[in-house]
């Protein structure tokens, strides 16, 4: 694994290996700060061209738990002055960077950067446009496996703005590769991707049928920053038809869990009773992001432990 840019096309064995490696790290992310020395002497550079709360901070924490030196480049004040992205990269590489963690509004940006870095420098995609958010998908499937065990018997319903969601796309590829029984997308036609037929999902336009007997329900926000004039329902109309609440979950499996990659918009795609209720694993997802990102970072740099690492 040289870079980590997408979950599309990754084999089940590799995804399972990432999950197992993350499991071995989960003991070193508790409140009493512990570190493992796997990335001691390595430099990780966070390059976030788009805003982030969860992904940037958990990548930083993950790198620090692995004992790496972490730089957070403020791209808003660094990339001006006419310098090209590639020149900027080469300058950061000259500081002996080992890894770039990249978020960008353009689909394909992380792949572009991966094509231009020196051999031995790894690129992790922290979300590119509508395309992919692979570590988010991995922390989501990690969370599902922790709660539900095997993927084969599961029905997973992804509800909301699938069309503009890099998270949904990466989740669908990962869930299918891991052998999930049924992956559903639940959305109005205007919020489905044009290539939905080829994604290996069942499409539902009605929330009740989409949630029926689901074991896992994943809510997504309306990603208005990527919509550019799309024909959309109003927020109140959207909530009436697709808003997730404890009452709407009555048709799901009684032990269904509720997930959301965040940020959540309460009263739009999800009600507080559900987001803060006993079914919700939304904040667990955030915590699990640290172990999953530790796993991916150590795997791409070829230092992942065979068993539970020694923490100090
Ligand atoms: N889930 C997610 O990508 O959140 P952030 O935008 O806060 O990183």
Automatic annotation (TrEMBL):
<feature type="binding site">
    <location>
        <position position="263"/>
    </location>
    <ligand>
        <name>carbamoyl phosphate</name>
    </ligand>
</feature>
<dbReference type="GO" id="GO:0044205">
    <property type="term" value="P:'de novo' UMP biosynthetic process"/>
</dbReference>
<dbReference type="GO" id="GO:0004070">
    <property type="term" value="F:aspartate carbamoyltransferase activity"/>
</dbReference>
<feature type="domain" description="Aspartate/ornithine carbamoyltransferase carbamoyl-P binding">
    <location>
        <begin position="2"/>
        <end position="145"/>
    </location>
</feature>
<comment type="subunit">
    <text>Heterododecamer (2C3:3R2) of six catalytic PyrB chains organized as two trimers (C3), and six regulatory PyrI chains organized as three dimers (R2).</text>
</comment>
<feature type="binding site">
    <location>
        <position position="54"/>
    </location>
    <ligand>
        <name>carbamoyl phosphate</name>
    </ligand>
</feature>
<keyword id="KW-0808">Transferase</keyword>
<feature type="binding site">
    <location>
        <position position="133"/>
    </location>
    <ligand>
        <name>carbamoyl phosphate</name>
    </ligand>
</feature>
<comment type="function">
    <text>Catalyzes the condensation of carbamoyl phosphate and aspartate to form carbamoyl aspartate and inorganic phosphate, the committed step in the de novo pyrimidine nucleotide biosynthesis pathway.</text>
</comment>
<dbReference type="Pfam" id="PF02729">
    <property type="entry name" value="OTCace_N"/>
</dbReference>
<dbReference type="InterPro" id="IPR006130">
    <property type="entry name" value="Asp/Orn_carbamoylTrfase"/>
</dbReference>
<keyword id="KW-0665">Pyrimidine biosynthesis</keyword>
<feature type="binding site">
    <location>
        <position position="262"/>
    </location>
    <ligand>
        <name>carbamoyl phosphate</name>
    </ligand>
</feature>
<dbReference type="GO" id="GO:0005829">
    <property type="term" value="C:cytosol"/>
</dbReference>
<feature type="binding site">
    <location>
        <position position="81"/>
    </location>
    <ligand>
        <name>L-aspartate</name>
    </ligand>
</feature>
<dbReference type="GO" id="GO:0006520">
    <property type="term" value="P:amino acid metabolic process"/>
</dbReference>
<dbReference type="InterPro" id="IPR002082">
    <property type="entry name" value="Asp_carbamoyltransf"/>
</dbReference>
<protein>
    <recommendedName>
        <fullName>Aspartate carbamoyltransferase</fullName>
        <ecNumber>2.1.3.2</ecNumber>
    </recommendedName>
</protein>
<feature type="binding site">
    <location>
        <position position="136"/>
    </location>
    <ligand>
        <name>carbamoyl phosphate</name>
    </ligand>
</feature>
<feature type="binding site">
    <location>
        <position position="166"/>
    </location>
    <ligand>
        <name>L-aspartate</name>
    </ligand>
</feature>
<feature type="binding site">
    <location>
        <position position="103"/>
    </location>
    <ligand>
        <name>carbamoyl phosphate</name>
    </ligand>
</feature>
<feature type="binding site">
    <location>
        <position position="221"/>
    </location>
    <ligand>
        <name>L-aspartate</name>
    </ligand>
</feature>
<comment type="similarity">
    <text>Belongs to the aspartate/ornithine carbamoyltransferase superfamily. ATCase family.</text>
</comment>
<comment type="pathway">
    <text>Pyrimidine metabolism; UMP biosynthesis via de novo pathway; (S)-dihydroorotate from bicarbonate: step 2/3.</text>
</comment>
<dbReference type="GO" id="GO:0006207">
    <property type="term" value="P:'de novo' pyrimidine nucleobase biosynthetic process"/>
</dbReference>
<dbReference type="InterPro" id="IPR036901">
    <property type="entry name" value="Asp/Orn_carbamoylTrfase_sf"/>
</dbReference>
<dbReference type="GO" id="GO:0016597">
    <property type="term" value="F:amino acid binding"/>
</dbReference>
<dbReference type="Pfam" id="PF00185">
    <property type="entry name" value="OTCace"/>
</dbReference>
<dbReference type="InterPro" id="IPR006132">
    <property type="entry name" value="Asp/Orn_carbamoyltranf_P-bd"/>
</dbReference>
<feature type="binding site">
    <location>
        <position position="55"/>
    </location>
    <ligand>
        <name>carbamoyl phosphate</name>
    </ligand>
</feature>
<dbReference type="InterPro" id="IPR006131">
    <property type="entry name" value="Asp_carbamoyltransf_Asp/Orn-bd"/>
</dbReference>
<feature type="domain" description="Aspartate/ornithine carbamoyltransferase Asp/Orn-binding">
    <location>
        <begin position="154"/>
        <end position="299"/>
    </location>
</feature>
């Amino acid at each position: 694994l040289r870079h980590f840019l997408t979950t599309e096309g990754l084999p089940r064995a590799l995804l399972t290996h990432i999950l197992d490696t993350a499991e071995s790290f989960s003991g070193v992310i508790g409140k009493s700060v512990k570190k493992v020395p796997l990335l001691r002497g390595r430099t990780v550079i966070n390059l976030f061209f788009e805003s982030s709360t969860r992904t940037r901070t958990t990548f930083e924490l993950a790198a620090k738990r692995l004992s790496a030196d972490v730089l957070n480049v403020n791209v808003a004040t660094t990339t001006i002055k006419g310098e090209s992205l590639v020149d900027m990269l080469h300058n950061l590489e000259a500081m002996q960077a080992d890894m770039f963690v990249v978020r960008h509004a353009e689909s394909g940006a992380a792949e572009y950067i991966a094509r231009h870095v020196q051999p031995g420098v790894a690129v992790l995609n922290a979300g590119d446009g509508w395309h992919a958010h692979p570590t988010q998908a991995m922390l989501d499937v990690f969370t599902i496996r922790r709660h539900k065990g095997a993927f084969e018997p599961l029905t997973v319903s992804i509800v909301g703005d699938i069309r503009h969601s890099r998270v949904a796309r990466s989740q669908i590829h990962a869930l299918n590769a891991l052998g999930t029984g049924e992956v559903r997308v639940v959305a109005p036609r205007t919020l489905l991707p044009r290539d939905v037929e080829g994604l290996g999902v069942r499409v539902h336009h009605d929330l009740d049928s989409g949630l029926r007997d689901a074991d896992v329900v994943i809510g997504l926000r309306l990603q208005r920053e990527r919509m550019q004039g799309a024909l959309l329902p109003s927020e109140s109309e959207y909530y009436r038809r697709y808003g997730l609440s404890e009452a709407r979950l009555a048709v799901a499996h009684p032990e269904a869990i509720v997930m959301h990659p965040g940020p959540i918009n309460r009263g739009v795609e999800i009600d507080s009773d559900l987001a803060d209720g006993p079914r919700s694993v939304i904040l667990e997802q955030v915590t699990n992001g640290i172990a999953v990102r530790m796993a991916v970072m150590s795997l791409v740099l070829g230092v992942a432990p065979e068993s539970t690492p020694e923490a100090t």
